[in-house]
Each structure stands twice: as C-alpha cells, then as structure tokens.
Amino acid sequence: MTYGILMAGGIGSRFWPRSREAYPKQFLNVFGSTSLLQQTFARIEPLIPAARNYVVTHERYTALTNRQLPHVHVLAEPISRNTAPCIAFAAIVLRAQDKDATMVVLPADHQIHDEYQFRAVLEVAIEKAQAPGTLVTIGIKPSYAATGYGYIQYDGPTSERVRAYPVKTFAEKPNLATAERFLDSGDFLWNSGIFVWRADTILEKMKQHLPGIFEAFEKAASALGTPQEGEAIKAAYLRSTRISVDYGVMERAKNVHVVPGAFGWNDIGDWRAVYDLSQKNNHGNVLHNQVIVHDAGRCMVHGGSRLVVLVGTHDLLVVDTDDALLICHRENAQQVKNVVEYLHARQLTEFV
Amino acid sequence: MTYGILMAGGIGSRFWPRSREAYPKQFLNVFGSTSLLQQTFARIEPLIPAARNYVVTHERYTALTNRQLPHVHVLAEPISRNTAPCIAFAAIVLRAQDKDATMVVLPADHQIHDEYQFRAVLEVAIEKAQAPGTLVTIGIKPSYAATGYGYIQYDGPTSERVRAYPVKTFAEKPNLATAERFLDSGDFLWNSGIFVWRADTILEKMKQHLPGIFEAFEKAASALGTPQEGEAIKAAYLRSTRISVDYGVMERAKNVHVVPGAFGWNDIGDWRAVYDLSQKNNHGNVLHNQVIVHDAGRCMVHGGSRLVVLVGTHDLLVVDTDDALLICHRENAQQVKNVVEYLHARQLTEFV
C-alpha cells in the first residue's frame, strides 16, 4: 500500500517574526485560510486517504499537528536531525505494519498550482517505485535560472508523456551563470525534495550509505509498539548524525529515477517568495490587515494588531507582530535567518 | 519689563505617530531628556525669570503645559488661529499689567546650539525694541541654501558686532536656485519666527494691518480679570481670521528691524530634521530603544515597546508606537502630515 509522509519538522527561521519556534511556518497560513501543512495534506488526500498519512515533526509540535490535521498520524521526533533520520523513522514504522509499504515523502512547505497534474506525476512515480531497489524523486521543469534550488541532471526527456527517467547527477545550488547553463541544456530539473520509494528499499540504501543511522533505527524497530518505543526512538536519534537524505543517499545511490513534473511548484523559502507568489495591487503592493500607503510600491506588509503606514518606501517586506517587527529589503529576505541566529547568540530567546 | 511668550499651539502632524493631537511634538522629548518646550523655556529663563514667561497654547494642552512647566503662566486658546491672534491675545494680557511690556515671542519647537550667543542676540533685540513703533525679528545667518525656510533681506551687515539692521523685504520659501542666489548675495537671513516688540507697538501695528483681529481683542481686553474673560477671549478668537503674524503684519509693516544671529539654529520641522540633528553611529543609523540592524544604513528608528529589526534597508525613518507604526523614506518626511489629513478624512480619529 502507499503511505504519505509529510515532513514538518523545520522551524522556518527565515519567516521570523511570524514563524517562531513555538509556531513554525508550516503551521502558518501565509497564503489564504489554511496552513502550508494543511494544504500539503489536502493535495495528497485524494490519492492517499487520511488514515495512511503520517506527519513527522518535532514532539513539541504534536499537539499543533493534531489540531490542524486531526485524522492524520503523527510521528514525533525527540530531536531534529535533518531528513535522513526522519525518513528512517518513518520507514521502520511503515515496514512494521506493511512489508510492501511505499512512501510518498512530501515536505510540508511547498506551494503547487496544478494539483491534478501533481497527483498524475506522483502516480507515475509510485508505479515506478514498486520495483525493489528503485529510488524515485520528483523533478520540476525549471521556469527560470533559479540559484536557490538544487538541480537534477537526467537522461531525457524522450517524450512529452509523464514518465520516469534515470538520474545522471545531483547538483548543489548553482551560481547564476551555471543555473543559466542548466536551463539552456534542457536536461536539468529542480530538485523538489519529493521522494517515492518502498520502505524496505530506502532502508536497504541507508544500510549501504548511512550505516550508522540504519543500525540506530533497526535497533529501535524491535521496540515499536512496546512501552520502550519512546526511549528506543530517542536513542536512535541521539546516535544519528545530522544529514539530509539528498546528500546522504540520493547523491550516492544507484538506480535513482526522476519523474519530471510541470505543475507550478514553489518552495516557500522566505518572505520574498511569499511576495512573489501573492496577488499584488496595481502599485505592486501586497497589504494584509490595517495598512495605509502613500507613494509606496512593490512592498508587502503582513500587519499585526496595529496600523502600519508606509510613506515613500519601495521593495520592503514588513512583518509586524505584538512583540517584534521586521522591516526587510526584498533582496535581503534570506538574511532573516541570520537575525534569528543573532537572537539566539544574544540570549534574546523570548523573540525566537 | 520684558516677558517671554512661548508659542506652543501646534499639533505637529509631521511628527505622527509620536506626535498626536493629545500630545503634540513640542511636549515630546525627541532629543534627550526634556521636551522642546522645556528646552525653549530653559534657554530664555536666564534672561527672563519663570514668573514673566507665558505659554500660549490650545486649552486642551493646559494641564500638559502645567506639568512640564509648573512655574510658567499659561494662556489658553479656545481654538487655533495661527500666530497673529495668539500674539494679540498675549499682547493685551501683558499690556493690562505693564503698559511698557516688551514681548519676546519664541516658537516652542526650535533647537539652538549656542544658548549664550542666542541670549546675547536677544538682548540686542530687546534694547532695539524699546523704541515705540519698532518691530524686531531675529534672522539666522544661513549655513546652506535651504528651501524649507522663509528669508529676510536686510541692509547690512556693516559690522561683525551683533546689532539691529533695517529689513528690506521678507521672502517666501524659495526654490533651490533662488535659495542659492540668496545665500551668495550675503544680505539674506533665515526667518526664525522669533520676534521682539512692545505689547502696545504690536497692537498698534495690528490696528493698521489686521484691524479685524485688533478690534476683536481690544473688545476682549476690557473683560480681562473678570468672570467674563473666558467668554470674551473665545469671542475674540471666533471673530479672528486664521493668519500668521509674518504674513499679516511683518511683511506689510514699516520700521521693521532684524538682528542677525549665528547660534546654530534649527526649526525641528519633521522626522528628517530629527535624523539630521541626531548623533549617528558609523553606519549613519540613529537607533532608540530595542533595535537590531543587519546591513542597514542611514536609518532612524524611534522604537516603542517592541523589538524592531532592520535587514538590508537604507534611508528609512521608522517610528513605532503601541497603536501605529510609521515607515517613511527619509526624502518623504514632509508627506507624513498628508497621512494625518487622510486619517481625519477617513474618520480614523483614534490614530490622530
């Protein structure tokens, strides 16, 4: 059977001050009325019913997850260790109840425009992933020379039809010149971080490429469903290194395939991405809550409880909360995470 | 005897949101620890003791004025009608108790660096103003081609010594080219709005040039010190037109003299002026209260109760209060008053 694994463990520090450790971005409704996590679930549910979906997140977010997705299982991580341990945890849980379990791994902070095309692409990936030993990833046909995404080089495309192709290489985030070469070449895709594979297959690959993590979770597997489960999982995380499944497995493994998709995908990485994807007025402004603008353009304001007035400003991202206010130039949105690091370094933890 | 008349009737809408109708700029300490009004009083007190100083302000600010300057008299205006009625009111009050009263009229929103030089200039002006029929104004030797001030053309200077000179003409705020001509000519001064004259003299000049206002206040004069005083003053204001003493009297009168001064004068007109006059750090930032900056320069933040974070911003004026936040480009500071007008027009009076 097929299962959904929604990865919602991040703290989204680039969305400070709206995103706090107590309430990270994937639980926020930065667009419309539901959260990024709820939108991720709503997209997959027509393919995988609620009872076969699992949210993997830090244990401090268990209650929050249950409130937003009451019908979905939660796998609580005792500590955050990037995606490889997270996926190992999900894999041993699924394998224990279904030896033929296939996992659809979905980051919980994406925006996707064409859900139907998205599910059509997943169905092809799921079918391909039935073959033991096969890892499948979803690649996005690039619409511009993005420098903020990793890339996948593949053998194709040989047809317009949605199908899987062998992966040649994975490439880190490129500089602009390289990104433009990738775009022109036609055989590079954006790495979406969406994966499909059998639970036993990914564990087998981890045994090869991440033996430490594999052994830690194999050891914990025997305790699943016993009173010792919590302690065993905690021990497994403590023994695991902090590493992503891309770097730890995908870039090293054989028999990796990619299904190219064109369904209007965006990784909501920072406030600038929210601005780019938001509906703008004819001055290019995006204004939420009580805002007055005078000679201002290309600004986004996520207001709080107070009146916000912009006079003569351009290209600003303004996020107002009760205890903290961010005013950021649109081109500097990535640096917001540095501010959160600074707040930690300065022990200003009431703001993080 | 000589008396101080501190004009503190304005609402300072260009200092919104810190300046509110309930608490205007002259009562705020935008610099240091005392308000602009208290600083104005402190400058004049060595020359004119507290008991001979009067603050003319709207009646709604009487309590506020008494709190800030407990030893100074308050003349409460029932409505605001610019400076001519304000000065007529003060003149009839002084004349009633001292037929030889000389008035030193001081706007309450100036910043002056050299107090000693300032008082030396005033002493020369006071002496000159003893001659009946003489109006004396203080002119500021211009330090640059300012377009935000009115100018005074005078006959001089003929010596370095501080002395009074006849005024040729008053000029409105000029454009930059004209301001540069004024600066080069050497016989133009900034119009400071500081005046010295005998009470009977200014009333005599008003009889000539502003007969309506003159008659209104002459009529009220007879009621001073009686239970009818309040009603009589209110009637005088209601009968008075809204006009400045510069336009209504100075520009039309004969026998007007100016004493040029060089004591580091600034008219604190808007937030940009506050920035210009504030001590800056080596990124050109002026930061009050809890502020964190990352790649930001030439910004001023008057923070409130919350943390303010700037990322990658330049040339911004940020003023944070509990119910309203202003983010203004430094070049647009003058337009803040338009926002206040807009708030009135939209009935958003809780914010003004």
Quick synopsis:
Chain A is of the alpha/beta class and 352 residues long. Helices cover 32% and strands 25% of the residues of chain A. In chain A, helix 3 crosses helix 6.
Give me the oligomer status. homodimer
- The main sheet of chain A orders its strands as 6-9-7-8-10
**Would you count the extended β strands of chain A for me?**
17
N-to-C terminal Cα separation of chain A, in Å?
A: 40 Å
Bin the strand percentage of chain A. Answer: 25-35%
Largest interface: A-B, 36 and 36 residues
Mean pLDDT of chain A: 94
What is the overall silhouette of chain A?
A: globular
Structural class computed from helices and strand pairing of chain A: alpha/beta
How many distinct helices of chain A? 11
Secondary structure: helix percent of chain A: 25-40%
Q: Provide the low-confidence segments of chain A as ranges.
A: none
Order of secondary-structure elements of chain A: EHEHEHEEHEEEHEHHHHEEHEEEEEEH
How many strands, what sense, and barrel or not for the largest sheet of chain A?
A: 5 strands, mixed, barrel
Radius of gyration of chain A: 21 Å
